[in-house]
Amino acid sequence: MNWLAPFQYPFMVEALLISALVGIVCAVFSCYLVLKGWSLMGDAISHAVLPGIVLAYLCGLPLAVGAFAAGLICAMSIGWIKSSTRIKEDTVMGIVFTGMFALGLVLFTKVQTEAHLNHILFGNLLGIEREDLIQTVVVSFLTLAMVLILRKDLMLFCFDPAHARAIGLSTVILHYLLLALLSGTIVASMQAVGILLVVAMLVTPGCTARLLCHRLDRMLVLATLSSVIASCLGVYVSFFINGSTGACIVLAQSFLFALAFVWRGRQSKRTTALN
Amino acid sequence: MILSLEASSVTVAYPNGHTALRDATFKLGAGTIAALVGINGSGKSTLFKALMGFVKPVKGQIHIAGLSVEQARKQKLVAYVPQSEEVDWTFPVSVWDVVMMGRYGHMNFLRIPSAEDKRVVSESLERVGMKEYQERQIGELSGGQKKRVFLARALAQSGQIILLDEPFTGVDVTTEEAIIALLRTLRDEGRIILVSTHNLGSVPEFCDQVVLVNRTVLASGPLEEVFTEQNLRQAFGGALRQFHFEHSTIQDHDGKTVKLLTDDERPLVFGKDGHLEYKDRSGREDLVNKRKEEVGE
Ligand SMILES: Nc1ncnc2c1ncn2[C@@H]1O[C@H](COP(=O)(O)OP(=O)(O)OP(=O)(O)O)[C@@H](O)[C@H]1O
Ligand SMILES: [Mg+2]
Q1: Best of A153, A154, A163 to mutate (most B CBs within 10 Å, chain B)
Q2: What Å distances lie between residue B226 and A1, A17, A189, B199, B212, CA to CA?
Q3: How many whole angstroms separate alpha carbon A193 and alpha carbon A197?
Q4: Do A167 and B73 touch (CB under 8 A)?
Q5: Mean pLDDT of all residues in chain A?
Q6: pLDDT at residue A206 above 90?
Q7: Coil, strand or helix: which one is B28?
Q8: Which residues of chain A lie closer than 8 angstroms to B50, CB-CB?
C-alpha cells in the first residue's frame, strides 16, 4: 500500500484542504458553543436547515443562503415559542427541529433534484461541486473572522451576560449573533460531513479541549489543533477504506476525545496520588 | 461635571405586575458612602437594577451626574456588583481575566488591553487583596474570595459611582473590615458608594448617608438624622429583634461597660436619647466632647 497515494489525486488534496478549513471554523466556534451550553441548539439548527436547502434549490438561490435562513428561522421560532409558553427550551427544540426536518424530507420527495439527498445528509467532500466549494470557503472565512473579532464579547456573553449588559453591550444582539454564527458554521461544514453529523464537528473539538485546559485562549488553540487533525485524518483514512468521509472525520473526532478523556483521567489520578 | 445620584418618584413594576418600588425619591452627593437598608423584598436590588437601567421605571426619573442612565453608562460612570453572581464557575477564565472584563468598556471593539488597562487591573486586585490569586481559575476560590474578585472588577471599571448589593453576606469579619477600609478610601477619592446591607450594626461604622426602603424610600439623608430607632422600626416593622439593657447595668460604678455578644452580625446600639453608639470614634470627636461636657455639668 502506498501511504502517499491520496496526495496524488487533486480531489483528495482539495478535500484535505477544505476539511482542514472547516475543521478550524468549527473548532473555534465549538469552544463558545460548549461553554454556552448550546450543543442541543446546534443539533436542532443543523437538522432544521434541510427545508431551506430544498427551497433555495427550487428558487435557484445558493443553497448556503437557504440553509442559513432556515437555521435562523428555527432559532427564532424556538426563542419565540419558549418565551410565550411554559414549555422548557429543550422540548421546544425537539418539536421545532424535527418538524422542520420532516418538512424538508417531504419537500425533497416532491421535487426531483440533482443534489442527492445523501450528499446533504451525509456530506460529499470528495465530489464537491465548484459552486459549493466557493460557498463553503466564503462562509468559512466570514464566520471565522466574525468569531475571532468578537471573541472577547462572545466570551463575556457566555460567562456573564449581566456584566455584558452593564457595560452597554446588547445581550439580545449578542444572542442572535451567536445563533447566526452557529448557522454560519453549520452551513460551512454541511458539505464536509452532512447535516446529520455536523453537530459532532460543533461540539467535540470544544469538549476535547475543555478536558485538557483551563484557559479559553489555550482551549481555542487546542480545539483547532484536534479538529484539524481529526478532519485530515478522517479524509485520509476514508480514502483507504472507501468509507463515508464525513463519518470518518466524526469518528476521528470521537477518537481524539476518547484519548483526551483517558489521558485526563490518568493525569488527575497522578496529581491526587502526589498530594 | 458634578457627581450626584438622584432618583425622583421612581416607580418600578415587574412584568408579572408586581410593583416593587413606588415613588422612590432620594439624592446623594459626591464623596459619600450610603447604606441602602430594608427588609427582604423591600426593593433594594430592584433599585440597583433601575439605577443600572436593567429595569425601566414606569414612572419617575433617575439622574446620574445630571445625565440619564443610558448616557451615564456611555460615560462609564457606574460600576455594579450584583447580590449574587450568576456565572458559570467552571468557565475557563482566570481571576485576572474576570477583572479585565471590567476594562472592556474602556477598550475598542477588539478589546485588546493597553498597558493602562493592565495597570488598573493589577491595582484593583491589589486593593482587594487578591493579587496572589490572579492566575487561579475563577471557580477555584472560596465564596468570600469570589466576592472580592467581583469587587475588583467593579473597581477596574473606574466608575465614579459604585453600587454594591449586599457585599458582606458570607464574608468573614476580617474581609468585611478590609472591604470597609477600601470603601472609605474610595469615598475619600470623591466617589459615591451605595451599599445595600442587612447588617444594621455596621452601618454607623462606615456609612455617612442612609436610604431606608420598604417598597418606597421611607427616609433618606445623613446617618444621624435618618438612622433612628423610630425610622428603623418603621422600615422593619416587627422584624427587628431588640433587647433593652437594664438601667442599672450602665451606671458609673460598673465602669459604664456592658458586654454584648452576637453570633455574626455587629449589633446596632442606641445610647442615651437614642444616639448611635460607635465602635470607631475617629471623626466623631464632637459627639465624644459633647458627652464629656454633659458629665462636667
Ligand atoms: N424578576 C422579578 N419578577 C417579578 N418580581 C420580582 C422580580 N425580582 C424581584 N421581584 C419582587 O420585587 C420585590 C423586591 O425585590 P428585591 O429583589 O428588590 O428585594 P430586596 O430588597 O433586594 O430583597 P433581599 O434583601 O432579599 O435581597 C420582591 O417582592 C420580589 O418578589
Ligand atoms: Mg436583594
Answers
A1: A163
A2: 90, 72, 65, 16, 8
A3: 6
A4: yes
A5: 92
A6: yes
A7: strand
A8: none
Cell numbers for A104, please give them. 424538508
The CA distance from A204 to A217, in Å, is 17
| Integer Cα distance of B297 and B282 in angstroms | 24
C-alpha cell belonging to residue A127: 465530489
ipTM of predicted assembly, 2 dp: 0.89
Give the CB-side neighbour count of residue A215, counting CA atoms within 13 A: 10
C-beta of residue B120 within 8 angstroms of C-beta of residue B156: yes
Residue pair A94/A43 in contact (Cβ under 8 Å)? The answer is: no
Q: How far apart are CA B217 and CA A140, in angstroms?
A: 55
Q: What whole-number distance in Å separates Cα of residue B204 and Cα of residue B290?
A: 18
Given a contact cutoff of 8 angstroms between Cβ atoms, the answer to whether B271 and B290 are in contact is no
Task: Fill in the amino acid letter for A201.
Answer: M
All domains of chain B in start order, with CATH:
4-226 (3.40.50.300)
Closest ligand 1 atom, residue B16 Cα: 4
**Packing angle, helices A171-193 and A198-212, rounded to 10:** 110
Closest by alpha carbon to A67, among A196, A188, A179, A247?
A188
The dihedral of CA A248, A254, A257, A261: what is its sign? negative
| CA B48 / ligand 1 centre spacing (Å) | 11
Residue B244 pLDDT level (bands cut at 50, 70, 90): low
pLDDT, tens digit (0-9, with 9 covering 90-100), for A120-146: 888 888 888 888 899 999 999 999 999
- Going by alpha carbons, the residue nearest to atom 18 of ligand 1 is B43
Cα dihedral: A240, A241, A244, A248 (round 10): -80
Instruction: Identify the residue whose cell numbers are 466574525.
Output: A146
- Cβ contacts of B189 within 8 Å, gap of 6 or more: none
Percent of chain A with pLDDT over 90: 74
Whether B167 is in the pocket of ligand 1, judged by its Cβ within 6 Å, is no
Nearest CA to ligand 1 atom 4: B14
The three grid cell numbers given for residue B130, joined into one nine-digit string: 487578591
Q: Indicate the helix (H) or strand (E) that contains B20.
A: strand B19-29
- The alpha carbon of residue B164 is apart from the nearest alpha carbon of chain A, in Å, by 13
CA B52 – CA B46 distance, rounded (Å): 10
Distance from the first to the final alpha carbon of chain A: 49
